[in-house]
What does this fold into?
Amino acid sequence: MPSWNALARQDPERGGHPTVHSLATRYLLAKLAMVSAFLTVASPGDGRQDTPPVVSRVDAPAGTEALGVQWVKVAVPGVGVMLAAVARPQGAGPFPTLLIPHGSHGFARQYGQLAQAMARGGVLGVAACWFTGGRGAGSRFVTPIECPQAPAMPDASGPAAQRVVDALVKAVRTLPDVRADRVALFGHSRGGGAALNYALSGTSTVRAVVLNSTGYPGDLAKQVPGTSVPILMLHGTADDPAGGGSTPAARRPYLEPPPP
It folds into this structure.
């Protein structure tokens, strides 16, 4: 079965193939960022989805029974029905929670495994199918999970993506054992692009964002000084535009302090 490292390296759409960080390193870095962010104060924001999502339990999709996660569906009128794998830590909740939107190759077992890895570290993980289908060379490295009722693949920076992310954040806050004031995003590839846009929108309601193999549009960089959301960027040195990633020059404006 492909590992999360393989998944992260091979999705060329909206973020390429970082080769520097192992799964353990990614996990530890993300955990450190979240721990720091969960201890800070963030503005609540206004949100985007007026109609509240409806969350209900569902059976495990075929072939995923051995994952050992709980499955739910998130129904949002006018948006779609999204499938999500919920991995709960051991012990008494509520827990800080990480919502994981997938990359362009589509929803896959590997995202459920990432949610489980977070749960083993004490963070409730929710891997969500935020659009149906998938594309890109990275598809051959993952084991897909079908979610045909989810919305069509949106542009990561468009309003459709923001509506979906906002609906999923609101849905996650209603789940048992979730600390509603301690929800963060871990976006991979196209999911990272959607998470980045959500974080920089000025209405984000999450406490931290982790970006894995994500593209960094130049026009968004000017919004970085205005955000209070902590952002951790995971990007391999080999993740260049030829593989769907970005150059160091494209990432630099997001890392440098704003001019005085």
In short: The longest helix spans residues 23-38. The chain has one domain: 4-42+49-255. The beta strands are 54-57, 70-76, 80-87, 95-101, 124-128, 178-188, 209-212, 231-234.
